[in-house]
Amino acid sequence: MLAYAAGDAAAFDRLYARHKGGVYRYLLRHCRRAELADELFQDVWSNLIRARASYAPTAKFTTWLYRLARNRWIDQLRSDGHLTLVSADDEAQGDAVAAIPAARADEPQSRAEAAELGERLRAAVAALPPAQRDAFLLQYEGELSLAEIAELTGVGAETVKSRLRYATAKLRAALHGELEQRSDRDDPLEQRLG
């Protein structure tokens, strides 16, 4: 980011390539509408471009970037007049999770199982209380540490740890039968929740 702020346009390309997927998924899993996630995603990167001259590395870049994304999401909630993040009853639209292939990605049954697991995971994440969902998405999608999440959300590290522990327990319970049935023990989701 410092290189981009100094005028290196290629540095922006590197930042974008490295972080676009996680930021987009973070927003999509909060709003669960692809068209809204696209709009918010563009706003986040536009805000980054506008802030480049005043950027000061007071925190890790990813923490700063996810603060932009989180603030944009909160602004959207305020403008919509919503007090909660996302209802589990909202109709889910296309999501990259459903497209994640299993270990035998070329087999139709494996693809169907992966799609079903993606749907169950999406529903389980949507059903989490907003604070737990936010902490989980910041860690899983943003790859932020406990300390970074605490700083970003304005709560203590122990609170973040509790939110993540509860979120993981709820996700594990929701997916328990599905994960037990899967014979592929190298599944990254299972390792993440395990």
Major pleated sheet? none
Q: Write down the CATH topology of the largest domain.
A: Arc Repressor Mutant, subunit A
The arrangement of helices and strands along the chain is: HHHHHHHHH
| Rg of Cα set | 18 Å
Distance between the termini: 34 Å
CATH architecture classification name of the largest domain: Orthogonal Bundle
Output mean pLDDT. Answer: 79
Number of domains: 2
Q: What is the CATH C level class of the largest domain, in words?
A: Mainly Alpha
Q: Can you put this structure into words, describing what you see?
A:
- The structure is a single chain.
- By secondary structure, the protein is mainly alpha-helical.
- It folds into 2 domains: 2-80, RNA polymerase sigma factor, region 2, helix turn helix motif (Rna Polymerase Sigma Factor, Chain: A), CATH 1.10.1740.10; 104-193, Winged helix-like DNA-binding domain superfamily/Winged helix DNA-binding domain (Arc Repressor Mutant, subunit A, Orthogonal Bundle).
- 70% of the residues lie in helices and 0% in strands.
- It is built from 9 helices and no strands.
- Helix 2 (9-31) runs antiparallel to helix 3, helix 4 runs parallel beside helix 7 and helix 7 crosses helix 8.
- Mean pLDDT is 79; it is low at 83-104.
